[in-house]
Amino acid sequence: MGNRGMAWALKVEDFSYSYPGNGEAILRSLSFTVNRGECVCITGSSGAGKSTLLLAIQGLLKGGHCNGRITIDANGWKKPVGLLFQNVDSQILCSTVEEEAAFGPDAIGFTGEETAAQAHHALQSVGLAGFEKRNVDRLSAGEKQRVALAAVLSSRPAVVLLDEPTSQLDEQGKADLVQIIHELKRQGHALLIADHEPGVFHGVVDRLFQLEKGCLRERSFGFFHGSGSYAPGPGGADSSKPASSAEPALEMDGIVWTEPNGKVVLDCLSLRIGRGEFVYLYGENGAGKSSLLRLMVGLESPQAGSIRTAGITAPKPEQLVGNVGLLFQNPQKQLFEDSVFSEAAFTLRMLKYGEREVMPRVNGALALCEVERFAERSPFTLSYGEQHRVALASVIAANPEVLLLDEPFAGLDFPQRRRMLTILSRLQRNGTTIILASHGPLPAGEWVNRHIILKNGKISEG
């Protein structure tokens, strides 16, 4: 599956892998090469094994059973391979942006001058010049993804592995990433990308494969034409959205919120959402969407203004348990139980529901989110997209009055995104107020009652 006559940097030969305790191989006899100066993209549904393949190439799979061979020819580069993880929080080690970008080259023996130059160039290439002294923990998910990418690139690995690199990026971020890939190819790096959205890379990818049932099949971009649509399928959005109530589910008036460094994120923002509304909140990376949701549930406090959520003024998180649910941007930050069932049952048990009521509620939530088959599995053994659906099930099992979702599409392929929208549409029909925040515009507006846009600290109607 390689281009003959070109020097390969990565060779995978008849490679198979199965996870511990699972006799069925998730990867089956894969063979392909990636040449220097070439970009190969692998797409496939959530849970197909794309991340597993990249982890295998990076040498990070522990246990399980594997056959075949993976070979990397560094060809003089100091670092053979670098991997951008799907969940970038799991690979960020340092406090500041500058320290994170410099960590890799310093660790592999670059001089202090070389390290500083590589870190500066990498941050500039990902659009983070001027962010050097910023605290990584205060950045948005999209900004963190850029930091992690800079940290990978600063070490100049021979083979660059990118796992869902567009999942947290807005449209400008995606365009910037394509330009970065063009430049890396020109410099002679080999690139292997795993992504649900291969169309983003049309024009820079040399070969495209689909991973399906453990096997690779070479595809053209035309094969996926029309598959990336949010348009409702049968049983999807109701053609007539339920009307919202005149009674508000959420009121924010004159909200001012600044970061510890003094940056104003929300500037005299006001917002009113009626009970039963489905609202789509759009904003670019760093616009303040996550901060706005955290303010709604009392995880942050504004410097000025008033907030009333689900009838509670200046709410604290403990006052909203069971009535307001928040799906975090990174699902791993709210998963902690030993099994998927226990995860979904946690809030109900905390509210002292009896097990006879917990069982049907949890089973219903798991079925609605299509994760019931994982009920006895640890949530930490699942793919990122599967974890997102488990986290959603844990939030909706208590039947909250208000549901807030922070980037819920991350890690989900397009069919799963449509299914999630279908789930949310059903919840709205039952009276749930829904606010969905995303860095990507929603093309099919029939799913929601309102589009609102967060830009320059203020809300406008879309």
From TrEMBL:
<keyword id="KW-0813">Transport</keyword>
<dbReference type="GO" id="GO:0042626">
    <property type="term" value="F:ATPase-coupled transmembrane transporter activity"/>
</dbReference>
<dbReference type="Pfam" id="PF00005">
    <property type="entry name" value="ABC_tran"/>
</dbReference>
<protein>
    <submittedName>
        <fullName>ABC transporter ATP-binding protein</fullName>
    </submittedName>
</protein>
<dbReference type="GO" id="GO:0016887">
    <property type="term" value="F:ATP hydrolysis activity"/>
</dbReference>
<dbReference type="GO" id="GO:0005524">
    <property type="term" value="F:ATP binding"/>
</dbReference>
<feature type="domain" description="ABC transporter">
    <location>
        <begin position="10"/>
        <end position="238"/>
    </location>
</feature>
<keyword id="KW-0547">Nucleotide-binding</keyword>
<dbReference type="InterPro" id="IPR027417">
    <property type="entry name" value="P-loop_NTPase"/>
</dbReference>
<dbReference type="GO" id="GO:0043190">
    <property type="term" value="C:ATP-binding cassette (ABC) transporter complex"/>
</dbReference>
<dbReference type="InterPro" id="IPR050095">
    <property type="entry name" value="ECF_ABC_transporter_ATP-bd"/>
</dbReference>
<dbReference type="InterPro" id="IPR015856">
    <property type="entry name" value="ABC_transpr_CbiO/EcfA_su"/>
</dbReference>
<dbReference type="InterPro" id="IPR003439">
    <property type="entry name" value="ABC_transporter-like_ATP-bd"/>
</dbReference>
<dbReference type="InterPro" id="IPR003593">
    <property type="entry name" value="AAA+_ATPase"/>
</dbReference>
<feature type="domain" description="ABC transporter">
    <location>
        <begin position="250"/>
        <end position="462"/>
    </location>
</feature>
<dbReference type="InterPro" id="IPR017871">
    <property type="entry name" value="ABC_transporter-like_CS"/>
</dbReference>
<keyword id="KW-0067">ATP-binding</keyword>
